[in-house]
């Protein structure tokens, strides 16, 4: 009889069960499962600074985030007829006692700041992220309210405001006052 350890011949650690939760310095972590199947399904992070990464096999890895960290998860899938899914979610990892939204591939879920579906909307958010990076601002440090603003404006088919250095400075000052 083969054990699960022997089935993973490429040296990778077998995936853990959902009951096993790894803990970081600030408590339990939020885990994001990324899958890559060439030409079928590709998941990646547009931005984010994981505190831990675990490679499951050549096609899957799990990246982990501490409470409060922000990341952007992009999911794309296709079949023989073309693209069938393009989504982008900007998520804030939450602490154990915080309410959260269930999000596919994010365990246990998170504070969903922005969610768009369809390649044209995903590309529009990419342009906004690129503009933020061009201003020498790390998208992980952008005010969560800005991502909510972008989500709401795009849902209403309106143009979102840009994120300026002045807005960013105001956010950093407000953030310093938060408990």
List the helices and strands and how they pair.
Layout: H1 4-7, E1 23-24, E2 27-28, E3 30-37, E4 41-47, E5 52-57, E6 60-65, E7 70-79, E8 82-92, E9 101-103, E10 106-117, H2 119-134, H3 144-155, H4 165-177
Antiparallel strand pairs: 1-2, 3-4, 3-6, 3-10, 4-7, 5-6, 7-8, 8-10, 9-10
Descriptive report:
This protein has four helices and ten strands. It is globular and about 50 Å long. The longest helix is centred in the last third of the chain and has 16 residues, at 119-134. The strands form two sheets. The chain has a five-stranded antiparallel β-barrel. The protein is α+β, with helices and mostly antiparallel strands and 179 residues long. Mean pLDDT is 86; it is low at 1-21. The chain is 25% helix and 37% strand. It has helices spanning 4-7, 119-134, 144-155, 165-177, and strands at residues 23-24, 27-28, 30-37, 41-47, 52-57, 60-65, 70-79, 82-92, 101-103, 106-117. A hairpin with a 2-residue loop joins strand 9 (101-103) and strand 10 (106-117).
Query: Going across the major beta sheet, what is the strand order?
Result: 3-4-7-8-10
Stretches where pLDDT falls below 50 for ≥5 residues? 1-21
How can the largest sheet be summarized?
A: 5 strands, antiparallel, barrel
Strand content: 35-45%
**What is the radius of gyration computed over CA atoms, rounded to a whole number of angstroms?**
18 Å
Number of helices: 4
Helix content: 25-40%
Q: How would you classify the quaternary structure?
A: single chain
